[in-house]
Automatic annotation (TrEMBL), chain A:
PROSITE patterns with a match to the protein in the record: ABC_TM1
Family statement drawn from the similarity comment of this UniProt entry: Belongs to the binding-protein-dependent transport system permease family.
UniProt keyword annotations, A-Z: Cell membrane, Membrane, Transmembrane, Transmembrane helix, Transport
Membrane topology annotation: Multi-pass membrane protein
Native species: Sabulicella glaciei
Gene3D superfamilies the record matches: MetI-like (1.10.3720.10)
Protein name (Swiss-Prot/TrEMBL): ABC transporter permease
Lineage: Bacteria, Pseudomonadati, Pseudomonadota, Alphaproteobacteria, Acetobacterales
Entry-linked Pfam families: BPD_transp_1, BPD_transp_1_N
Residues of the ABC transmembrane type-1 domain: 95-304
Keyword Ribosomal protein part of the UniProt annotation: no
CDD domains: TM_PBP2
Subcellular location: Cell membrane
UniProtKB/TrEMBL annotation, chain B:
Protein name: ABC transporter ATP-binding protein
InterPro entries reported in the protein's UniProt record: AAA+_ATPase, ABC_Ni/Peptide_Import, ABC_transporter-like_ATP-bd, ABC_transporter-like_CS, Oligopep_ABC_C, P-loop_NTPase
Subcellular location: Cell inner membrane
Family of the protein in this entry: Belongs to the ABC transporter superfamily.
Domain (ABC transporter) ranges: 8-258
């Protein structure tokens, strides 16, 4: 088990190296020049060239890549072209809102979607089942920003139950913190809930037809115990897998959601950095997202052993 | 005569399934009773409704699409009239069940101890710790070596025979009055089959439970049953004490079943009799058959059989059969 964990963590190094190469190359190939953006409309070609030299952008590709990787290896993500702040500082300032949003969405999604999927499978073919599946189709097909603006309009502007936008740090109290996150989490979670509910229903349907469910019934177990102990634990592996895969959706969606609800998180930081061609920041954020994703997948693989004793590493 | 009190009395049991193309009459008017401590076998080929009969007693048939009618009296109560909650108190407690597939009938993600303990916690309100102690005892009782270690293991760590022993331990944990065993040995090796049958017989005497044994294996029937019900196409066609049935089968179907059993050593004695078979297939249960259900495959069938269904009538003491042409013996 521990050997497996160490092996998996070591295996993230080549994965991250490939990710780093891709991120760096994509930005290198992408059109747009930060020097031109900094220099402004009135600048002469000489000005732009001077700024480019001062940023080190005139050096060959491989030299720049090597230097970047070497710095990352030492824990230095570089310095923002625009703010002149270290990228790691800028990320650190923006981590909390995004982390909060993702965690709240994750919790909300799992606690809503899993019971919905279980009940839909139990009541297969009934009105409840169809309602859940109808909602899932809706959740899949309506874009995050539409759900976001709709929620903000109804529950913030019209009903005035929640703030329209913004973010309050956790340090200022749980209530103000969660108040600001409810609507964004629902908007961001809609797709996620749809995905988890669907896979839960499908897996549960299969599990509920198994012989051991009949055995549980023959023992006199009640419906709740059959659904949530005997069946759900058997259905856990595919559900946990989808929760992990869905995390990528979450990170992508967070960028849009943060824009809609004006949350000063990593998503906003990314969008701003892209608009300004702030290469070090973009690279740092994307690298961070990839790293989190790789770690989450490791965590999921380890969770499998918790739910299914037949899986051992 | 047998004077043990009647424990289970099934009367005119009808289990029907609504399907896309009509109603499937899986069990159609079956009646039988089981006395305390008795072993009753229900035999018949695949699809005759014997498993559905077993599942109907515990109401394990999903309703809908299933529909159970008739009366199932157990200890003075009609099980079909009980609420779901009352029924749950009977399942696994007063009536328990063993299934055919030990490989798939145990929950793969729960420990053996947890699965045995579950019934004890449900029906006897035992604490988790006490239930596990009792689970260890049960494992020892069903002959599993190192029960203290096995109790913490998962089904995939056990062999098929051991899993069936675990199923028996689960079924007997609450000292049920009735044990329904649906093909308990079919999926096992022959040597393991014998061990499991021995175990069931031993435990029956020590626990004192009545057994309803569902099987298609006449060898098993001869070995453990006291009385036999023969089913065909959802109906009971014959019932008799086991010795009587094997010696003097009345119904042509029962005769066919007994004739299709290969006899060990018959080639050594120079007999080269061909193994008898019953021609044809079980009729579809979706159409109502006006006459005898076995008429289409019966060597003795006449036009009368096709037109008029024979009633179950006594042909000998404690021996009933549903055939117009089975000879009657004086009581």
């Amino acid at each position: 088990m521990w050997a497996y964990i160490v092996r998996r963590i070591l295996a993230t190094i080549p994965v991250m190296a490939v990710v780093a190469l891709f991120v760096f190359s994509l930005l290198y190939l992408a059109p747009g020049d930060p020097a031109a953006v900094i220099a402004g409309d009135q600048a002469t070609p000489e000005d732009v060239e001077r700024i480019r030299a001062s940023l080190g952008l005139d050096r060959p590709y491989l030299v720049r890549f090597g230097e970047w990787v070497w710095n990352i290896a030492r824990g230095d993500l570089g310095i923002s072209i625009f703010t002149n702040l270290p990228v790691s500082t800028m990320i650190a300032q923006r981590v909390e809102p995004t982390l909060s949003l993702c965690l709240v969405t994750l919790l909300l999604a799992i606690s809503v979607a899993v019971p919905l999927g279980v009940v839909a499978a139990w009541k297969q073919g009934t009105l409840i089942d169809r309602a859940v599946m109808g909602f899932a189709v809706l959740g899949f097909s309506v874009p995050v920003f539409v759900v976001g603006y709709l929620l903000a309009y109804v529950f913030a502007l019209e009903l005035d139950w929640f703030p329209v936008q913004g973010y309050t740090p956790f340090s200022e109290g749980f209530l103000p913190w969660i108040e600001n996150l409810v609507l964004p989490a629902i908007a961001l979670g809609a797709v996620y809930i749809a995905l988890i509910a669907r896979i839960t229903r499908a897996t549960m349907l299969e599990v509920l037809s198994q012989d051991y469910i009949r055995t549980a019934r023959a023992k006199g177990a009640n419906q709740a115990s059959i659904l949530f102990l005997h069946a759900l634990k058997n259905a856990a592996v595919p559900i946990v897998t989808v929760v992990g895969i869905g995390l990528a959706l979450l990170i992508g969606g967070a960028v849009v959601t943060e824009s809609v609800f004006a949350i000063p998180g990593l998503g906003r930081l990314t969008v701003d950095a892209i608009l300004r061609r702030d290469y070090p920041v973009i690279q740092g954020v994307v690298l961070l997202f990839s790293f989190v994703y790789v770690l989450v997948n490791l965590l999921i693989d380890l969770l499998y052993t918790l739910f299914d004793p037949r899986i051992r590493y | 005569m047998d004077n043990r009190p009647v424990l289970l009395d099934v009367e005119n049991l009808q289990t029907h399934f609504r399907t896309m193309d009509g109603v499937n009459r899986a069990v159609d008017g079956v009646s039988f009773s089981v006395r305390s401590g008795e072993t009753l076998a229900i035999v018949g080929e695949s699809g005759c409704g014997k498993s559905v009969t077993a599942m109907s007693i515990l109401r394990l048939i999903p309703e809908p699409p299933g529909k159970i009618a008739g009366a199932i009296r157990f200890g003075g109560r009609d099980l079909l009239k009980l609420s779901d909650r009352e029924m749950r108190q009977i399942r696994g407690n007063e009536i328990s069940m063993i299934f055919q597939e030990p490989m798939t009938s145990l929950n793969p993600v729960l420990t053996v101890g947890r699965q045995i303990g579950e019934t004890l916690r449900l029906h006897q309100g035992m604490s988790a710790g006490k239930a596990e102690e009792r689970a260890v005892e049960m494992l020892r009782l069903v002959g599993i070596p190192e029960p203290g270690r096995r109790v913490r293991e998962y089904p995939h760590q056990l062999s098929g025979g051991m899993r069936q022993r675990v199923m028996i331990a689960i079924a007997l944990a609450c000292n049920p009055k009735l044990l329904i065993a649906d093909e308990p040995t079919t999926a096992l090796d022959v040597t393991i089959q014998a061990q499991i049958l021995d175990l069931m017989r031993d435990l029956k005497t020590s626990v004192g439970a009545a057994i309803v044994l569902i099987t298609h294996d006449l060898g098993v029937v001869a070995e453990v049953a006291e009385r036999v019900v023969v089913m065909y196409a959802g109906k009971k066609v014959e019932e008799a004490p086991v010795g009587e049935l094997f010696r003097r089968p009345k119904h042509p179907y029962t005769q066919g079943l007994l004739g299709s059993v290969p006899r060990l050593g018959s080639s050594l004695t120079g007999e080269t009799t061909r193994l008898a078979e019953i021609p044809g297939l079980v009729p579809s249960l979706k159409q109502k058959i006006p006459g005898c259900v076995f008429a289409s495959r019966c060597p003795k069938a006449t036009d009368f059989c096709v037109a008029v269904a024979p009633a179950l009538e006594p042909k000998a003491p404690a021996h009933v059969a549903a055939c117009h042409y089975a000879e009657k013996e004086a009581a």
